[in-house]
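P.,

For your records, the input lines for the assembly:
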Amino acid sequence: MQKKIDMDKIDRKIQRMKQDALDLKEMADSFPAVYRNTSRILASIKMLEMNVSDLISE
Amino acid sequence: MISEQRYWNPLLETLPHQKIRDLQLRKFKRIFQWAYDHSKFHRQLYEQAGIKPADIRSFADIRRIPTVEKSMMRSVQRKDPFPYGDPLAVPLEEVSEFRQTSGTTGQPVYQADTWQDWEWWAECWAYILWAQGYRPRDRVFLPFGYNIFVAFWAGHYAAEKIGAEVVPGGVLDTQARILKIQELKATAMMATPTYILSMADTAHTKLNIDPRNLSIRRITCAGEPGASIPSTKKRMEEAWNAKVFDHAGATEIGAWCFECEAQPGGLHVNEPFFLVEIQDLQTGEYIEEPGRKGKMIITALDRVGQPCIRFDSKDVIEWQTESCSCGRTARLIKGGVIGRADDITKVKGVLLSPAAIEEVVRSISGLGDEFEIVVDKVGDIDRIALKVEIVKGKTDQRKAIETELKDQLRLKTNLGYELEFHEYGTLPRYEVKAKRFKDLRKAH
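C-alpha cells returned:
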C-alpha cells in the first residue's frame, strides 16, 4: 500500500539540511574542499526545494 | 520498490492543473525579480518597457513583458563578463558549464550555467527518463560526441541521477558503438532520429548485424522532430525493435517537454519548470485553446545563471485536446514540435512544413531514410525539388513508388513537386542534426 507523503515534514527536513549546509559553508571560506563540496550540496538541496518546498510555499 | 513507482515526483506530476498554474505564476515572479536584480541585460530591457517586478500579478501582466530573441543575445555577447556579456546574472566564478547553440540560424549564442543550473538540467531530464520507463536497472548507451553542444549531456547526468548505468559512446565511430552496445547488452540509448536510422543502416550494411537482435529496448530522441513524426518513429521502432520516445529541449531553454510511456500522440510540457505561451503567427494573439498552431514563447522558471524569460523560440506548437492516460496533469502539445516559424514558409501561396514531407517520405517503404527539399524560384514561380533514394532491391518498382509519393504529397501538403530519384547512399548522411530543407529563394 502507498504510504501517504507528508510534505510538511519533508520540507522541514529540507530546510534543516539547507541551514546546516549554509552554516557549514560560512565556516569554510578558508577551506576549499569543504566550501566547494558544500556549494554542490546546496545545489542538490535546491532540487529538493523545487520538488517539494516550492509546492507549499506561498 | 523505487523502480515500481510510476512518477519521478508523485506530487508535482499529478498536481491539479490550476495548482500548476498557481505555482508557475509564483515561480515566474521569483525568476523575473532575480533577472531584474542581477542581469544588466534584463534590467535594461524591462526598464525600457516600463515594467517592474511589482507590476507582475497575473498571466495577463506577463504578456506585457518584452520577449527575447536569439538575435538580441548575439548582439550583447562576446563582451565582459566575457564571453557571456550582460545577460549573465551571477558572478563569472559561479559559472561551471559552458555550452553554445549550433549556429544553424547564425552566430552561436553562448550559454552559462551554474552548478545549480546544471543540477536543474539533469533534474528536468530525470522527469523525462522516468516517464519513458528508464529505471536503475537500465544500461544506457550514449552514442554522442560529448562537446560544446548540450545535446545529450544532461541525459547522461540524468541517467546517473535516476540510478541507471551510463556508457559514454564518445569518440567511438558508428561501428564501434554498435559493437559496444552488443558487447555490453545496453538496454537504452539516446540520439537524433537521423543517427538512430543511420546506425541501423550501418549495422546491416557494414557489420551484418540486425539491430532488432541487440538488447536496446528504449530510445530517447532529441534535436529533430522525427520521433514525433509517425512514419519516422515507426521506422526507428521497427529497425531496433524498441520503443522510441521524443523529447524537446534547447540550449537557451532547457529540456522542456517529453513523451511519456503512454505515447498519447503528444508531448507533456514540464509545466512546473517551464511556462509555455503560444502566440498566433500572424496576429500575435495568445492561444489558450487546443487545435490552433502558433509559435512558442517560453520561460525557464528556475534557471539563474543566464535566465531564459519569455524567449521567442520560433518553435511551432499547438495544445492537445485530450489529457493523457498516464495520469500526468501537465498539458500536452499535439505531435511535438511541428516545425520552426522560420521553416514553415509559404511556397506558391501554401504553407509548407518540412515535417509533413518527412512524414510522407518515411511512410513509403520503397524509399530510403534520406531526402532533401530544395525550394527555389524559376522566374517568378516557386519550385520545390524533392530528392529521394529508392532502397536497394526496389528500383524495379520506381514507377509505382513515384505515383504513390506524388499522390501522398499532394494529399498531405497541397503542393506539387519535382521529384528527383537518386541512387541509394548518394544523398548526404548526417550524424547529428540533419539539414534537409534548403530555401534558396532567400539568397535571391
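Two observations worth noting. Chain A is about 80% helix and 0% strand. Residues 25 and 35 of chain A are 5 Å apart (CA to CA).

Regards
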